[in-house]
Structures are given as C-alpha cells and as structure tokens.
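Protocol step 4 of 5: obtain the predicted structure for the target chain.
Materials: sequence only (see below). No template structures provided, no constraints applied. The aim of this step is simply to have a reference model before the mutagenesis design in step 5. Sequence pasted as it appears in the construct record:
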Amino acid sequence: MPVDFAAKVLTVLSEHGAVTRIQRLENAPESGYHVYAVFNGPDVLQIGHGKDGRMRSCMRGALAKRHNKAFICALGEKVLGRRNEYAFIEVESKEQAEQIEEHVHAQFGIRTNDNAACLISGLTDVGPVSVERVNRWLWQKVVGLSAYRNLSPSRKVMAEELMDLVTWCTVRERGLERNRLTAQGDLLEGYTLAKLDKAHLIHIFQELTDDYLRYGSHKLTDEEFRARERGYQYVPRSERFEIVLDGERHAEEAMERPVRRRGTMPPAHVAADAHGARSDRATDTPAGALVERLSDDHYGPFDSDICGNDESNRENSQKLKEQKLGSPFILRLHWKNSKAHLPRWVGCYRLNLRRLLDGGYMYHDPDGAPRLKIQHDGGEFYIRRAVKGPAVRLG
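Step 4 output (structure tokens):
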C-alpha cells in the first residue's frame, strides 16, 4: 500500500504553526515568509520556503518565473493524474523559514540543497533521490501518456530537448562582476527561454502539462511555432552540458559545451584502456579515510568537475585555494583517451585534502598553493604527487 507521505509532511509542518491548505492560486499568500509543500494525493512534489509569493511560482495557473521545482510540480501533476494541492505555514523571518524547512527535510532523510525535496511512492520509498533522478522518472512515465504519444514527430523531438534542458543543462551568464548560473526548473522562465532562443519549448511544456504555467509575451505565436516546428531537428544529449552567454550576447550566439556527466559510463577500472597499462608507475596505497567514493546519483554542490585527457601526459593537476583544505572536497571525475574521444565517467569522490597533503599525496606550489594531481595508470586512477611516488587509488 502506498505510503501517505502528504499526511506525514502535514503533521510535521503542523508542529511549527497552523497549516493552511489551498487548491487555487488566488488563495495563495502574496507577502510574508512561508514554509510550504506541494502535494498530489499521498505524494509530495516539493517542500520549500520563501517569501512574497514564492510558493505561487510552482502553482497551477501562475506566471512562469524562476522556480527550480516548477518542472517537477507541473509534470508530476500530469503523471500522477490528480490536481496538485498546496499547504503552508506563516513564519516571521527568513532564518526561521530556513530552519523549519531543514527540520522538515531531515524527518525524511532529505539533505537540503542536495536531494530533491520529493516524496513519491515507487520512487523514494527507500530514501531521497536527486532532482535528475526525479526528472528521469517523470520522463519515463510521460512517454507512456497520450499527451506525449499524440505529439507530432517534430514535437516529440522538442519534448526531448525540453527534458535535456531542465535535467542536464546549466546556463552560465558571464557578466562584468560575476557569473549567474541557472538550471533545472528555473530555465522555464519565459525570459530565460527566449534569451536562449528556445521559446518554442513553451508550447511543448504547456502541451504536456495542460497549461500548468502561464506565459506572456515571450511565447511564440501559433504561426511562429509552426514555422519553427517544420523540419525541427535535435539530438538528445542525456548528459550534463552548459550554455554560456557572455555579457549581452544574444541567444543565437550562445556557446554550448558538454559538462562531463556522472553515471553514463562504467568506472574507468572496468573500461577498456586504449593506451594499455603502465604498471611500472603504480604504487597503490589503500585509501581509507583519505578518499570516499560517493553514489553516482550524488547530486549537490561540488568543488571540482575534472575531465582529464591521456594526451596530457595521462594526468590532470589543479591548483587549489588554501581554504579548501579545511572542509570535505567533492570531486567529480571524467576522463578521455584523447581529445577526439568522448569523456567517460569515472566517479564522484569526497576527498580529505588536509590528510592527502599531510600524507605526501599532494604538494604545495612554489607560491604556497596546494596542488591536486590525478594520474591515469593502467586503467586505474590515482592521486599522487610524483610518477613513482606513493598513491591513493580512486576506486
């Protein structure tokens, strides 16, 4: 029997204040701080906090704005086959909202800003999962629905593009002062889609979700959409990639580049090594607490996303900031046999940089900056400072 996650979340919320349950956008709060949940029958699609109508941004009928769970809330309603409902409690400050949200998450094993704040029978029964995993699960369900099956071939291609965009893409806008990163459901904002020259995806998103979100002037006219649809081509990616916008650069000038993604290829030690083994270089030391391999589904902040290349002396080195030594360092590693080859996934690891440095597996540059070097040797990957020195294998 399905777990009634919604009832459990409402019970936890009620410990912190009076819970208001609503179904319609016009009843949603427009000011103040809130902790809220979006639920569909016994399932929960989002647990979050915010102010001044943040909850409204993931509700049916709202104008599409930046909300990273808007895609899950919209497509989740379609997949689960019931209208979403919403619940919230009022709080007095941002700090209080954050504390309550984190407490609610913790009751269900959700790591805030790491796991998706979703509780769905058949998906999260054994524990929380990443946003990417939720999106993939939703997509597997959507392709079996008539809303997808009835799409024309060109629109199905666009639907694949929409899925790639909200699951795998990060948009990096490089300005004069700082980079702005946008990903997941935030990319459904009309202005953002238009800037990326992907406003045609608005039609597809609305078609798949029965107009869950509204769009204004950024939506193409029916005539413009039909013109874009004719002969439309797109090759599904199903891997991480970036779209980089420099300054005021227009969307058609955006540069897309792959961001090597975890989980698509086997670990390097079971993959073929085109260059053969070089066992004379291997001095393996058990990793112990120096290195911990994380799940391939690990989702959340990371410190470095490395793609090494055998043509670069079969190694990759990175100069790090001294302050990185004081906390766990999350590394995602991919590798290529050459510049012409596609990268393959190696793994995601938590490194204890201080212990690696103290143990002689890392070293300081002449200017005092710590340096992390990773070497590819005989199909295995190692952290070490010298070719024949002591090494920690990345398992």
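Step 4 remarks: The two ends are 39 Å apart (CA to CA). Residues 268-393 form one domain.
Proceed to step 5.
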